[in-house]
Amino acid sequence: MFPVTVCIYDINFARVFINWDHCVATGLDNTNVNIGDHNSIKSRAKEKNEDIIIAGCPCHILHNVTGKAGTDFSEITGFDIEDHCVDVFYWLDKSSKRKSILKEYYEFCDSKYKEIIKFISTSWLSLELCVNHELKKYEGLKSYFLSEHFPDAQFK
């Protein structure tokens, strides 16, 4: 009987043939098609090599954990950081008047004006970019939102 080989694609998309006996572990996206117990890549790989380690994608796991932590944080504190980032972006996005006023506050706080980054919930790590950007520009944003009078309760 011939040894079973698996064909995978490396980073350069060139075909690489690896004997299943030499395959130690693989990481897959966290879907049932990939890591489910029945009729999945995991179950088929285990048929070829029962010692193979199948790990879920660490990026997906980290994303799911931080999403759950953010949800719990917002339930406890009543402050949803995702909603905050979305609200600030859309408040300033289409209004050149608001942007020009914000620029004045930045100048007053000795800070250079930069556009607010848009948070996209399906794009991993964009929340960190948005929050870090706002924290770097915190003094100008804080002065703007404390000094201007807004009818919306979301900016109080």
UniProtKB/TrEMBL annotation:
GO molecular function: helicase activity
Record keywords, A-Z: ATP-binding, Helicase, Hydrolase, Nucleotide-binding
Protein name, entry field: ATP-dependent DNA helicase
Organism: Paramuricea clavata (Red gorgonian)
Lineage: Eukaryota, Metazoa, Cnidaria, Anthozoa, Octocorallia
